[in-house]
């Protein structure tokens, strides 16, 4: 089969703070590279752009921004990466992305007086992930992972609300990963799923989020409190 015709997979990691997303992203990229895959790591927010620097200032509590404004900046920070992402994927590069639109919606929706339907709209038209790995930590293990940092949103109560909202966004592309294990155990689980996804989507068209984003009702098995993985 002509390798050049294969597209890369868009793999997104989501979850609450301290679930191990960043560690797992790096591990996955390293292993895939070693196997000879074309793969690139991305992270949102991307703090390196002009918009990203505004976001970073906000997260560090150096500036205040109205809740809708910061929401749109997070989304704009993804929009400014769309062309690059699309080109890489079509050229056969798999993208491993640390946080994406689901964090965008869940973190804003955890604030008071934010309209859930409104929050989803800026994401419509962005590339839809082929696989979302949602890292879920049991509260027991979470409480043993040490203190939160100093940035905005790094508070237990807020994180609990975010976690509840993440559940509402789960669709068929999601896999819930039990993140309680050692980094190696968690990686093994993720690795199998990613390999399957890379194979599965290589001849499929790229998809975009449509207005039904987060309205998928066909995933009861993902919405329970279990640590089960499909
Ligand atoms: N965050 C992240 C949002 O509020 N909206 C978004 O769209 C994204 C991508 O920013 F608290 C929040 C989530 C987190 C903070 O993320 C910074 P990192 O992963 O800690 O840099
Ligand atoms: Mg953080």
From TrEMBL:
Pathway: Pyrimidine metabolism; dTTP biosynthesis. Residues 13-190 form the Thymidylate kinase-like domain. Pfam families: Thymidylate_kin (PF02223). Gene3D superfamilies: P-loop containing nucleotide triphosphate hydrolases. The keyword ATP-binding applies. Transmembrane segments: none annotated. Belongs to the thymidylate kinase family. This is dTMP kinase. It comes from Limulus polyphemus (Atlantic horseshoe crab). The gene is LOC106472663.
